[in-house]
């Protein structure tokens, strides 16, 4: 029978090398879930949560929790270089956010009723969000409420 021996100092070096290699790898991207709802404690026609802070590379899965909703990006409320997205009614979609900045999201059938949410990717400051003039009044009001609640919770 043949035996191989490793000096303990070599094993320690291997462990240290493995630890350093793992530390150098990028953090694993996360997936967040957002429910599309007719109502919750903040009112009618809502996303839950209404505000998310994620890292570049993270994914958001929009869940068709109650029927009649979708998730779509809002023109003029995407960071430079970000790809717009639009799910179908009653469709669960996953969107991976690669560009840092603020993303406005709407439900097409309930946009005028204020069914919107805000996604912060990276370190963008929600208080600097610019809402285009074409956004319906109730959606503008909801965005202001979302930013106020987001700032109060941080």
UniProtKB/TrEMBL annotation:
Gene Ontology molecular functions: copper ion binding; electron transfer activity
Protein name, as recorded: Pseudoazurin
PROSITE patterns named in the record: COPPER_BLUE
Cofactor dependence: Cu cation
UniProt keyword Electron transport present: yes
CDD domains: Pseudoazurin
Subcellular location(s) of the protein: Periplasm
Pfam families: Copper-bind (PF00127)
Gene3D superfamilies, A to Z: Cupredoxins - blue copper proteins
Domain Blue (type 1) copper: 35-121
Originating organism: Lautropia mirabilis ATCC 51599
